[in-house]
Structures are given as structure tokens and as C-alpha cells.
Write a structure and sequence with these properties.
The protein is of the alpha/beta class. It is built from ten helices and 14 strands. The protein folds into two domains: 4-122 and 293-313, NAD(P)-binding Rossmann-like Domain (Rossmann fold, 3-Layer(aba) Sandwich), CATH 3.40.50; 126-283, Dihydrodipicolinate Reductase, domain 2. Helix 1 (15-24) crosses helix 9 (291-306), helix 4 packs parallel to helix 5 (102-115) and helix 5 packs antiparallel against helix 10. The radius of gyration is 20 Å and the shape is globular. 47% of the residues are buried.
Length: 335
């Protein structure tokens, strides 16, 4: 199998699991360029990764051997960079969220469709083994009729995290805990059970943080079949705990904690899949394995080769971002 040429744009902390995944898939992918505007980051990356490093974005995008771009910049830069890459005939895999606003996200989706190229989004929680097993159980009706579902994201970020320029701002990140941290779990939950309506919501910034956007949100939903649902998400829970999705139906209940799944059936059977609890829920935002990132990248490479959409296309990420917008609108929160 010939290798796919890729350019990586953005070498901040988010690049770490992607870089390891690119190395793990070296038989399928060739990193032609890794791009950063910062000379300091370029030098640091050159000592850490075995990739050609450059600060020349135009050179990387113009390289005819680059078939796809992995876009790891802050979300406020996604639209313009993606448009440039798509115009140059490159497929684009974007780190979440799709963009800093729904409106800009819609423009990015339209650009990808107009170009006839693949646009995927890194929402790797869908690729965890526990999540995939839970999806299969729901598809097969193993839990029976959906009765209710909960999402909890009790994460922690110290103030030093938000003291970094742009962190937690509308201009760069587009939002707070929902769009930057809880988006993974919200996206997975929405894709599993659907959300038809945001019934009520509350969002605020707690006294634990000084930041422009929200760090605490609760919401009540109607799920896809009309059953009740609930969300609680924060980055103000000191030390942090793994995110959880809890779904119960007429035949049993499932708890997905981090990547681990436990299913208890009404007939007494139990099913467990232990995948560990390192999820980046605490102060060390990179404290998680790269397995799911590797699966996202492998799926995206398959999509390029076969001409199909990736498992998480831009439209799916946009639908999750629209739900997040609806929650904040319902709460009345104004950054």
C-alpha cells in the first residue's frame, strides 16, 4: 500500500497524540511537513519529532506530495486554513471543534463539499472500544427501549491553563467547557441516543476560574425517542474525574466511564470492558493514550483511499456544535 503524504499544521500540545499516531501508522502515512508559525516551537518540535519542520505554510500546502492536511491550530483559524488547503486539493482532518462558531463551521462544511474532498474532525471518543461496544449494543437493541440517559464531565483545569493567551476566549476557542472539553462526550452521547430538544439549561463561570467563557453547565434534554436526558459538565472539579455516559433501557443499563464499559442486564447478566481511566480529565491535559487518535487517523486514511466520508465527517461535528450552541442559548449565558 502506498503511503499518504500529510502536512501537520500546528505544533501546540494537541500535536502530541497525533504525532505518536503518525509514527504508529508510518507504514501508511508520510509526514511531508510539520508547520508552526513559532520558531521556538519549530526548534522544540525538531528535537522531539522525526518530521521535516518548517515555518513556511505556503511551502507545505503547495507540496504536490501532500495529499491531506492535519489541522491542529486553535479553532478560530480553522476556516481560513481549511479553505486554503481545500483550494489546493488537499483533504483536511481538523482537530475539534470544527470552528469557533456554528456560522463559521457551516462555511467550512460548504467548502469541503464544494471541493469534493474529505473533511473529518477529531472526535476520538467515538473510537474507544467501550464506546464502540455500547453503540453496537444500542444498535442491536440489547438494552431494550431507551428510558433515559445522563452525561457527566467532572473535569479540572487549573487557573494557569486559562492564563495562557486565548484560552477560554470566544475569539480563539469559541467557548469554554462545552466546546473545548465536554464536546467529546457530548458528541458521543448525541451520536448514540440523539437529542431532540434542550428543555432547560444553566451555564456560569465559577469562582474557581477567571475566564471569559463558561466553566460549569447543566442541562435537561429530550432524547431522540423523547426520553429524558441530563448533562452536567465542568472544568472546576478539583483533580478531575473521568467523564461518564449512563444509559438505561427496558432491558438493562450501561455505564461508560472514560473508555471502560459496564453493562448490567435485568436478567442478571453483566458485561465489562476495562480500558482504563486516563482521559485527560485533570491538570495534565495530555494524560491519555493515543489509541483512539490512531483509530481516527486510520479511518481518515481509509476514507481518502476509498473515496468515502470519514466516520466523523464535518457535518457530524457541526451537529454537535449546534447542540452546544442550543444549550448555551437556552441557559442565557453571555460571555
Amino acid at each position: 500500500m502506498s503511503r499518504t503524504g500529510i502536512a501537520v499544521i500546528g505544533l501546540g500540545p494537541a500535536a502530541q497524540p497525533h504525532a505518536q499516531s503518525l509514527l504508529d501508522l508510518a507504514d501508511r502515512v508520510e509526514v511531508r511537513w510539520a508547520v508552526t508559525r513559532s520558531q521556538v516551537r519549530a526548534e522544540a518540535a525538531a528535537s522531539r519529532y522525526p518530521f521535516p519542520i518548517t515555518t513556511d505554510l505556503d511551502r507545505a500546502i503547495a507540496d504536490p506530495a501532500v495529499q491531506a492536511v492535519l489541522l491542529l491550530t486553535p479553532p478560530g483559524a480553522h476556516l481560513e486554513l481549511a479553505e486554503r488547503c481545500l483550494s489546493a486539493g488537499k483533504h483536511v482532518l481538523v482537530e475539534k471543534p470544527l470552528e469557533r462558531s456554528v456560522e463559521r463551521g457551516r462555511l467550512l462544511v460548504a467548502a469541503g463539499r464544494a471541493a469534493g474532498l474529505r473533511v473529518g474532525v477529531v472526535l476520538q471518543h467515538r473510537f474507544r472500544p467501550g464506546a464502540m461496544r455500547l453503540r453496537a449494543l444500542l444498535t442491536d437493541g440489547a438494552l431494550g427501549e431507551l428510558a433515559a440517559g445522563w452525561v457527566t464531565v467532572p473535569w479540572w483545569r487549573p487557573q494557569a491553563y486559562y492564563d495562557e493567551p486565548g484560552r477560554g476566549t470566544l475569539a480563539r476557542d469559541g467557548g469554554g467547557v462545552l466546546l473545548t472539553q465536554a464536546i467529546h462526550t457530548i458528541d458521543l452521547f448525541r451520536s448514540l441516543v440523539g437529542v431532540s430538544e434542550v428543555v432547560s439549561a444553566m451555564a456560569t463561570t465559577t469562582k474557581l476560574h477567571r475566564m471569559e467563557t463558561e466553566d460549569y453547565v447543566t442541562a435537561q434534554f429530550r432524547l431522540g425517542n423523547g426520553a429524558p436526558g441530563m448533562l452536567a459538565a465542568t472544568t472546576a472539579f478539583p483533580s478531575g474525574r473521568p467523564e461518564r455516559i449512563e444509559i438505561f433501557g427496558t432491558k438493562g443499563a450501561a455505564v461508560l466511564a472514560g473508555g471502560s464499559l459496564q453493562v448490567d442486564y435485568l436478567d442478571g447478566r453483566q458485561e465489562m470492558l476495562d480500558a482504563g481511566e486516563r482521559t485527560g480529565s485533570g491538570a495534565n491535559i495530555m494524560d491519555f493514550p493515543n489509541d483512539a487518535h490512531c483509530a481516527v487517523l486510520a479511518d481518515f486514511l481509509d476514507a481518502i483511499v476509498t473515496g468515502r466520508d470519514p466516520a466523523v465527517p464535518a457535518e457530524e461535528a457541526l451537529a454537535t456544535q449546534e447542540l452546544i450552541d442550543a444549550i448555551l442559548a437556552r441557559s442565557g449565558f453571555a460571555a
